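Page 42, continued from yesterday. The earlier attempt failed because a stray header line got pasted into the input along with the sequence. Redoing it now with the clean sequence only.
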Amino acid sequence: MKPIRYVPFDEIDKHKWDSCIHFAVNSRVYGYTWYLNQICEEWDGLVEGDYESVFPLIWNDKIPGFRQLYHPLLAQQLGLFSVRVLSKPRVTAFLEAIPKKFKRQTINLTSNIQLNEMDGYHLERRPNYTLMMNGSYEQIRSNYSSNIKRNLKKADRSELFAGVSMTPEQFVELYQECHKDKIDALSEKVGYTMLRIIYQSLHRGLGFIAAVQTKEGKICAATFFLNSKGRITYLLPVTTEEGRKHGAMHFLLDVVIRKNAQSPNLLDFEGSSIESIARFYKSFGATNQPYPVISSNKLPFWLKWFIK
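This time it went through. Structure tokens are written below.
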């Protein structure tokens, strides 16, 4: 391995960083500099050699007198990205290179990284469901659950239509309206973050909005998908009450699967620990590819009691 160094944000070579993310064996769109800039206010990096491996350090100082690494919204898997082998020694070396000033850490790694328990860290594996779409549509559909097939028949009877366009503003407005009871006081800030991600992704050809409307012309389901390196990520789904009655999201996902059948693309549902949501993903024939989440807390003992 080449030396690993800590690089403050202002000194990062953004072109080399993004090149590493693009060619990494575990590439994820979340790791690009432009994406990181949308989802957090402060981040630095660890860099191996001439950017053969990179590791974003997303931090804040919300604990007075201490900095912490945290995992931001809208980016399921981050951590180490590399064009080299993702060996345990490489992962360990990067974790050991994290500056000691980050007293508390929560880091989501990619599912390609296999870890056992590590000294100083608590390890958790969270579910993530993915579906390979390299088979024919008929083959993929044969693995749908009976519930999915019933909902598709319901959508067909309701004469839903999927060739609908939405502006990013219309999408975010619908999302916030349908989730107004679930989004906290930061909902306006989260909305602006979503809007920036959507615009930045569309500008780079790395995302698309898919929407479904009723026969009366009312949008009843929509999703913003990231689309990078053959990975189509189900990032921001939203369904109205009417859409749920008509099986609109089942229909929308089936359309995406139909369009991508017999391709090397993978549909990433982004997983969920909520059983009902996980069951919905599995109902399309998706399989679980868990990803590791590591955390540590080296705050003074007296502070640990106040901050959970």
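Notes: The first strand starts at residue 4 and ends at 7.
Reminder to self: strip header lines before submitting.
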